[in-house]
Structure formats: C-alpha cells, structure tokens
Specification:
two-stranded antiparallel ribbon; 4 helices; 6% strand
Length: 71
Amino acid sequence: MTITSETLVEEILDLDPRVVRYFILNKVKPFTCGGAYPQTLGELLARYNVEDVDGFMAGLNAFIADEIESS
C-alpha cells in the first residue's frame, strides 16, 4: 500500500501498530481520545503544520516498506 495525502489515518494505523512510532518520532499524534484521527493524512499533517508533507509521506512509506513489509 502506498500512502498518499488522501489515505485515511485510520487505514494507516490499521496496517500495523508499529506505524505509530513513525508519527510520534515526527511529532504528529495520529489519534485522538476516541481512536484514530478520523480524516485524511493530508488533513492531519495540515493540523500539525507539517511543512514538508511530501517528505513526511516519503519517510512514512519507507518506514512501512522497511519495518513492516519486510518482517
């Protein structure tokens, strides 16, 4: 699965619990007290004022490929 700005945060978190680590290391909290953030990754990154959205997504996709899909 390739993550884009239109991917729902809930779908990303459902991939594997380890993906939360990437978000936290990059100072983005992908969940609320009610569960996964209920919108798209693009909306979440805008909420956290992430300046390099493309870089965040590239890093996230690399993390998923390296940490999750390779195990």
